[in-house]
Amino acid sequence: MIRLAPSILSADFSRLGEQVQTIERAGAHVIHVDVMDGHFVPNITFGAGVMKSLLGKTKLPFDVHLMIENPDQYLEDFATDDTEFITVHAEACTHLHRTIQHIKSMGIKAGVSLNPATPLDVLEYILEDLDLVLIMSVNPGFGGQKFIPSALHKIRELKKMKNERNPNLIIEIDGGITLDNIKEVTDAGVELVVAGSSVFGADDIEKRVGEFLNIFK
């Protein structure tokens, strides 16, 4: 099953609760939470408080993507009963295995994200411990960027690794996903799709979610 995770990075924060309820009503599966610190990436978004403000307003689980330095310092802030995934960047972790084990110890699925220029080789000794790998198809830090085509090759190679070593691994994509390229990335092996501006930037958000879900069928 392919799941849609709209990113609230692109939502209207003056209507955040309302818009999250809209994507839930339309059939979205997960809320993607992009956390940026202005150090690991050149932008600042929000912290755990904004995510927790949605508790009780939606039944959708959280998919937390930490684009921050020293993620270990903040993992527990994002651990809630509604948090399904916490994903950290391989490039930001000094002791990646320890970080992954910390996430798992809280009963949360653990993911690793790779920037466009980061090879799959960094997963060699951690792949079997992961629940999810997030392939960045833009350089992290800003919404609304264009999809980097080389991500498709990386997804296909990751799918081979998954089939050989960790069949339950979830492959996620984030960056520049639109109705025009979504079929291509899911055909390559993606099972969890992050879409930000292409969902929340639509004139009719509910209709746009439906359009994505129709492609998944």
TrEMBL record:
User: Which residues hold a divalent metal cation?
Assistant: H32, D34, H65, D174
CDD domains tied to this protein = RPE
Q: Has the keyword Transcription been applied to this entry?
A: no
PROSITE patterns, per the entry = RIBUL_P_3_EPIMER_1 (PS01085), RIBUL_P_3_EPIMER_2 (PS01086)
Q: Where does substrate bind?
A: S7, H65, G141, F142, G143, G144, D174, G175, G176, G196, S197
- Key word Metal-binding present in the record? yes
E.C. code: 5.1.3.1
Q: Which NCBIfam families match?
A: PRK05581.1-4 (NF004076), rpe (TIGR01163)
Q: What is this protein called?
A: Ribulose-phosphate 3-epimerase
- Source species taxonomy: Bacteria, Bacillati, Bacillota, Clostridia, Peptostreptococcales
